[in-house]
Specification:
By secondary structure, the chain is mainly alpha-helical. The chain is built from 14 helices and 6 strands.
Length: 344
């Protein structure tokens, strides 16, 4: 009887030890904090990534306290077979169970994409490619897809008007089509009924407002001048005068490094050359900002028809109602250019 009792306690003790060992192993593999203190990090998973590439990313960021336990937990949850692309944030103190739950269910965090001060749609695609999973080529393919353009009522020339510079919250793995839908919705939200009515009262469409706004931005980097310049160009449009906007010539020549627009420059054959073609160009010459769009919609009323850069190179302009006054300002500016040996 004593021997049986000893055996019972021995077996019981062994089972307790085994159970404790299993409990420790389960705790270690699933419940013990495994993201190092102060090491909360972003993890980006592409469509083509596999479990090894995930581990390499975790290693490079020195994110895990115990990689071996993470491997075991991932194997238990069959995680490698349930990987999802996306942008994930692994926070300090997370255990393997929480990490894998987030990764397996695709519980990613959105990212904020920003763009401002861009001239070309190609620049936009390149900038976005640094902020989302899609590459610039796939973005451009969608941006210039004829079906997309037709459905939105745009052309390749008017496309820059579609993109409203701002900060957007998106899923990092959003497809180019999803991003295009977002930009289209934002465009429609910006061009609400009131703003469309305001544009119409000026004799402009939303795209024409964008075209004029893009010229204004290139004319002056002093934003408080924009409503004045907008009013000036609207005056010229009403009088059916050539806009003679130097930035449109630079755009036609694809050379914004030109500091001094000469007679030979204004002879370029292009629908964007407002020295040769009446009215606005076929589309924006850059992606205009909200502020310049609003400057056009709230253009200042005055009698100015001419503008000339100030000879102090402050970036500001002289505005004139008469050609004679404008010519005097122009002579001052040309003298300043000559003194600085700015010949082109």
């Amino acid at each position: 009887m004593k021997n049986k009792l000893r055996l019972f306690w021995a077996v019981s003790g062994l089972l307790v030890i085994i159970a404790a060992a299993i409990a420790v192993q389960v705790y270690s593999n699933f419940y013990r904090p495994n993201v190092l203190a102060g090491q909360s990090q972003e993890v980006f998973l592409y469509e083509e990534d596999d479990f090894d590439s995930l581990l390499q990313q975790l290693q490079d960021k020195n994110l895990l306290r115990d990689e071996r336990s993470f491997r075991k937990a991932a194997d238990y949850y069959d995680y490698p077979a349930q990987m999802h692309s996306g942008h994930y944030v692994l926070e300090e103190g997370m255990n393997n169970k929480r990490i894998l739950q987030r990764l397996r269910l695709g519980l990613q965090e959105p990212v904020r994409i920003r763009f401002h001060n861009l001239r070309k749609v190609e620049q936009l695609a390149g900038l976005l490619a640094k902020q989302v999973m899609a590459d610039s080529l796939s973005l451009l393919e969608v941006f210039y897809d004829q079906k997309w353009l037709d459905s939105l009522g745009h052309t390749a020339e008017t496309l820059p008007a579609l993109f409203i510079p701002d900060t957007y919250e998106v899923w990092w793995n959003s497809s180019p089509d999803k991003l295009m839908q977002l930009f289209s919705r934002t465009y429609e939200q910006f061009w609400n009924e009131d703003r469309r009515a305001r544009a119409k009262s000026l004799g402009l469409s939303p795209v024409e407002v964008s075209a004029l706004a893009s010229i204004i931005e290139e004319e002056s980097n002093v934003s408080d001048e924009w409503p004045v310049i907008a009013g000036l160009y609207l005056n010229r449009l009403r009088r059916r005068m050539y806009l003679q906007a130097c930035p449109t010539v630079k755009f036609a020549l694809n050379d914004f490094s030109i500091q001094r627009v000469l007679k030979e420059h204004t002879e370029v054959y292009s629908p964007y050359n407002t020295y040769k073609h009446l009215g606005l160009p076929p589309g924006p010459i850059r992606i205009p900002e909200k502020a310049s769009l609003l400057a056009v919609l709230n253009a200042e009323k005055h009698n100015y028809l001419y503008m000339c850069a100030k000879d102090d190179f402050s970036g500001r302009h002289y505005f004139s109602s008469s050609l004679a006054q404008h010519n005097r300002y122009t002579q001052k500016y040309h003298r300043a250019l000559n003194q600085r040996r700015i010949l082109k």
